[in-house]
């Protein structure tokens, strides 16, 4: 049995809970409260109330580690990296079906790579902007290294 004192340390963290009453279904969400033999888990679409007695397994995930900035000149194809640099050398805007893309060169003191901006992002950037990609997939592009923002990554414009 999982005791309340142990669960209170997990409040605010992402949890994965399997219940004895439905072992094939996993509840995924943020543990919001622990009280009176029950815990409340908030998912994107619902709030689940689970009795301690019904817990089959509980796994807690801590916040993912933030990536450390990788010098552009040391990027390796197939990896995920955080990159920072200054924008220059914009391509022409390309219209691909319902999307629009702009490629630009991102440069730091160690080298340069190509990055892409899509749709509304295109109007937000200009040559000389300082850019941070918090999580990017490093690929081999036509002109060398290409870094694309991942689903969880962000492009920050300074």
**H/E order of the elements?**
HEEEEEEEEEEEE
Q: Average pLDDT across residues?
A: 87
The CATH C-level class name of the largest domain? Mainly Beta
How are the strands ordered across the major sheet?
4-3-2-1-5
Number of distinct helices: 1
- The CATH topology of the largest domain corresponds to OB fold (Dihydrolipoamide Acetyltransferase, E2P)
Number of domains: 2
Number of strands: 12
- Taking pLDDT < 50 over at least 5 consecutive residues as the criterion, the unreliable ranges are none
Name of the CATH homologous superfamily of the largest domain: Nucleic acid-binding proteins
What's the structural blueprint in terms of helices and strands?
Blueprint: H1 4-8, E1 14-19, E2 22-35, E3 38-42, E4 47-51, E5 55-61, E6 80-88, E7 94-96, E8 99-108, E9 111-118, E10 130-141, E11 144-149, E12 155-157
Parallel strand pairs: 9-11
Antiparallel strand pairs: 1-2, 1-5, 2-3, 3-4, 6-8, 6-10, 7-8, 8-9, 10-11, 10-12
Structure description:
The chain starts with a helix and ends with a strand. The strands form 2 sheets. A 5-stranded antiparallel beta sheet has the order 4-3-2-1-5. It is mainly beta. It has 2 domains: 4-61, SH3 type barrels, CATH 2.30.30; 72-157, OB fold (Dihydrolipoamide Acetyltransferase, E2P), CATH 2.40.50.140. A hairpin with a 4-residue loop joins strand 3 and strand 4 (47-51). The mean pLDDT is 87. The chain has 1 helix and 12 strands; from the N terminus they run H-E-E-E-E-E-E-E-E-E-E-E-E. Helices cover 3% and strands 56% of the residues.
């Amino acid at each position: 049995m999982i005791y309340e004192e142990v669960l209170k340390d997990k409040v605010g963290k992402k949890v994965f809970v399997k219940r004895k009453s439905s072992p094939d279904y996993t509840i995924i969400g943020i543990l919001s409260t622990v009280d009176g033999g029950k815990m409340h888990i908030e998912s994107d679409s619902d709030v689940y109330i689970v009795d301690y007695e019904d817990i089959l397994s509980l796994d807690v995930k801590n916040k993912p580690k933030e990536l450390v900035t990788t010098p552009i000149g040391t990027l390796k194809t197939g990896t995920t990296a955080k990159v920072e640099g200054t924008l220059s050398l914009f391509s022409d805007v390309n219209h691909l079906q319902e999307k629009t893309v702009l490629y630009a060169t991102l440069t730091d003191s160690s080298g340069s790579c190509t990055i892409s901006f899509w749709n509304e992002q295109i109007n937000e950037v200009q040559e000389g902007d300082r850019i941070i990609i918090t999580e990017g997939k490093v690929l081999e592009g036509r002109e060398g290294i290409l870094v694309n923002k991942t689903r969880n990554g962000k492009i920050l414009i300074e």
